[in-house]
Amino acid sequence: MFPEFTLRYARLPDRFFARFAPVAVEAPRLLAFNRPLAEELGFETAAFDATSAAEAFSGNAVPAGAEPLAQAYAGHQFGHFNPRLGDGRAVLLGEVTDREGRLRELQLKGAGCTPFSRGADGRAPLGPVLREYLVSEAMHVLGIPTTRALAAVATGERVFRRVPEPGAVLTRVASSHLRVGTFQYFAARGDEEAVRLLADLAIERHYPELADKPPAQRYLALLEAVQARQARLVAGWMGLGFIHGVMNTDNVSIAGETLDYGPCAFMEAYDPEQVFSSIDEGGRYAYRNQPWIAQWNLARFAETLLPLIDDDADRAVERATAMIQAYPEQYEAEWLSVMRGKLGLVGEEEGDRELAEAFLEAMAAGRADFTLAFRHLAEAVEQDAPALLERFETPDAIAAWLPRWRARLAREAADPATIAARLRGTNPRYIPRNHQVEAALDAAAEGDLAPFETLAEVLATPFEAQPDREAYARPAPAGAAVFRTFCGT
């Protein structure tokens, strides 16, 4: 069933990982299988068998050719450095080459207590597994670079967090699991050889265009390339009202993909100070802070590369600092590109940034739903639309903004119908709304997967109107409790 493994990471020196076989579970049962992704990866889906798949995707049966391992990494967690983290409950099976010739890694999350577990049980509750399945696949169809979910398996065992919960294992697919924290692990140990091996692997896997550059330029170019992808990624998050929740350096992908969906959520009423994570009491990872936390994390990545950037320590710091200082301009350009698209703009004018910021200010003043306010712009291209105005508790600010926006649209080389279609193709109608995700997870914990499966179907086509499923486009009921997420580790 599985395609052939290449084991690129497993051929690195032993200090990069701990070899570790998944710990068998009692009664694996397949809950979800992403057949389109499996076919993309080269799986033989014609021979698919749910029982065999449950054995393989739970870790009970290691696929032929795999060499399971737990990766070593460090990380800054809420600004505090931990020199030894690593895969505490995840096992990398290896890499496969998909049908487009790209290397993709397969990882089991919740596969048992590894040498990096730090006293934890190495397992995953059902809720966080299904949350990552739903949200990561939703992010993929929304156009955001992300890890993917291939399968979810119930283990037949209980795990203990705040209360006993059903256990599960997620099969995650990533371009790689190289993190800023992976580099930090070796940099903290003064292991320059390991940092160079990682940097060369990152270039080989994700930035092959840099391979021919001389060493004096190659590693600064790697920093620049990773920085560009992070700027683009976070701008994409901001355009969806997505809050990652735990932007620690061990969750920053060198490939530029959204990595780890612990305490994540999508904002409803627009509030730039919004925090969903129960552990983020200081608001470090609030919505508005995400772009600048990304810069902070990139500075930590730059520190690991200093010995490779220049033999002269002072020159290395100077060159890396100049690169990191260029980030705000890079991010602003990416964010403005996202916002232009969300406002139906293709051309570029000097006042576009102020126009976008004024819309966000109107949304904040009117406590408008982030997703639906942008979505209903398609109905307001030529005249006021009740569906848009109803999103605002106080309509004064949006009423003053609309004529300004329409005047800007009039300078676009497109007719109103084309602009409206452009807006509907850019602004989703359906996102993983927090209350709906929680309802689906609660039902799944009781053995009812129907709400999860229906929500997954809705989220698979987020830009298309689904008249029989309009409830999935609605925000949480007025007066609902403030939503909080938990890491689930």
Secondary structure blueprint with pairings:
Layout: E1 17-19, E2 29-33, H1 35-41, H2 50-58, E3 69-71, E4 75-77, E5 80-82, E6 90-97, E7 103-109, E8 124-125, H3 126-141, E9 148-160, E10 164-174, H4 180-187, H5 192-206, H6 215-240, E11 242-243, E12 265-266, H7 290-309, H8 313-325, H9 327-342, H10 352-366, H11 370-375, H12 386-389, H13 396-409, H14 416-426, H15 434-445, H16 450-459
Antiparallel strand pairs: 1-3, 2-9, 4-5, 6-7, 7-10, 8-10, 9-10, 11-12
Helix pairs in contact: 3-15, 3-16, 4-5, 4-7, 5-7, 6-7, 6-8, 6-9, 7-8, 10-13, 15-16
Structure description:
This protein is 41% helix and 13% strand. It has 16 helices and twelve strands. Strands 2, 6, 7, 8, 9 and 10 form a six-stranded antiparallel β-sheet that branches. It has a two-stranded antiparallel ribbon with strand order 1-3.
In short:
This protein is of the alpha+beta class and 489 residues long. The chain is built from 16 helices and 12 strands. Among the domains are: 9-177, no CATH class; 181-335, no CATH class.
